[in-house]
Design a protein that fits this description.
The chain is an alpha+beta fold. It has a domain of 125 residues: DNA primase, PRIM domain (Alpha-Beta Complex), CATH 3.90.920. 30% of the residues lie in helices and 16% in strands. It binds adenosine-5'-triphosphate (ATP) and manganese (II) ion (2 copies). Keywords: ATP-binding, DNA damage, DNA recombination, DNA repair, DNA-binding, DNA-directed DNA polymerase, Exonuclease, Hydrolase, Ligase, Manganese, Metal-binding, Multifunctional enzyme, Nuclease, Nucleotide-binding, Nucleotidyltransferase, Transferase. GO terms for molecular function: DNA ligase (ATP) activity.
């Protein structure tokens, strides 16, 4: 795993123009992961993370106490926020809520570290084109106690169905309990079409394989099954950004893996910042993700109804 030298983290923060205060503050209790460590982490993963986060409206999870006990979501500018976290209006937005935050460089990521951000969550559309999603996500949420083997099998099954429909997908270890199956799209279908497709897809799975899946978020009904959470796919909904740290014990990160290596992954939170940084220096696991050109056609949408 990588050596995330806090001294280097401080130097990089200064070099990109972010004033890192209390840089030795431990952000994950029981570890040596400080704000400076996180600055070093984001410097290592920025090359792979920035294409996922640039120009996406953000929801930031902050932990000002550094104890992981009380975290909160922030979507709007506060006084004193570093300038590298931009705020502005969404362009060509049909809805109401239109002022959003975004980052576009390493300074923005490290500015997040400075303000105790532990999670960067992103919309599925660009701020310049907020009405047309460029990706959809199947968020696999297992019942407590269901093992990771079942999660992986679910991800592979979802991939197989998507493939049969003509859609390529890529798996993300969430850094928590589950896997997100991510499907990049040429932004043509609107949010309603994408969300309906994901709901139809989840309900189809729940109908055909009810012992394993349900399409209802009720935890009481989950009982040893997987909730296929299609709710990530509405306008304004967010999902964890690939390479983001998580606000959970152990400093785990959301990490892209390939379909080939997924079966050998032992958990969704197996990569802490040191392991994730080491991995970010290897060849891209999501080869082709930014190049694939696929759309949610009427044929595909009708096939899952
Ligand atoms: P896990 O694998 O443990 O389920 P996850 O990131 O998928 O991790 P979920 O609870 O399934 O976590 O939530 C999915 C997404 O929903 C999150 O990544 C986040 O973007 C969004 N989300 C969850 N809770 C909130 C909240 N209170 N406010 C805003 N967005 C939220
Ligand atoms: Mn989830
Ligand atoms: Mn979920």
């Amino acid at each position: 795993s990588a050596n995330l030298d806090p001294g280097i983290g401080k130097e990089i923060a200064a070099a990109v123009g972010v004033k890192l205060t209390h840089s030795d503050k431990v952000m994950y209790p029981g570890t040596k992961v400080t704000k400076a460590t996180l600055a070093a982490y984001y410097a290592v993963v920025a090359g792979k993370m920035l294409p996922h986060i640039q120009d996406r409206p953000l929801s930031l999870v902050r932990d000002t106490d550094g104890d992981l006990q009380q975290t909160f979501f922030q979507k709007h500018r506060l006084p004193g926020m570093p300038k590298a976290i931009h705020d502005g209006q969404l362009e060509k937005m049909s809805g109401k809520e239109s002022r959003i935050l975004w980052v576009d460089d390493l300074a923005g990521l490290i500015a997040g570290v400075q303000m105790n951000v532990l999670e960067f969550h992103i919309w599925g559309s660009l701020r310049q084109q907020p009405d047309l999603p460029h990706r959809m996500i199947f968020d696999i949420d297992p019942d407590e106690g269901l093992g990771f083997t079942a999660v992986k099998q679910a991800a592979l099954d979802i991939r197989g169905i998507l493939e049969a429909l003509g859609l390529q997908s890529w798996p993300l270890l969430s850094g928590g309990k589950g896997v997100h199956v991510v499907v990049p799209l040429v932004p043509e279908a609107d949010w309603d079409e994408v969300k309906s497709f994901c709901q139809d897809f989840a309900e189809l799975l729940a109908r055909t394989d009810p012992s394993r899946f349900l399409a209802n978020m009720s935890k009481a009904k989950r009982k040893g099954r997987i909730f296929l959470d299609y709710l990530r796919n509405g306008q304004g909904s967010t999902a964890i950004c690939p390479w983001s740290t998580r606000a959970r014990a152990g400093a785990a990160c959301a990490v892209p893996v390939s379909w080939k290596e997924l079966p050998s992954c032992e958990s969704a939170n197996g990569f802490d910042v040191f392991a994730a940084a080491a991995r970010a220096q290897l060849p891209e696991a999501w080869e082709g993700y930014f190049d694939v050109e696929q759309t949610l056609t009427d044929r595909i949408r009708h096939a899952v109804r």
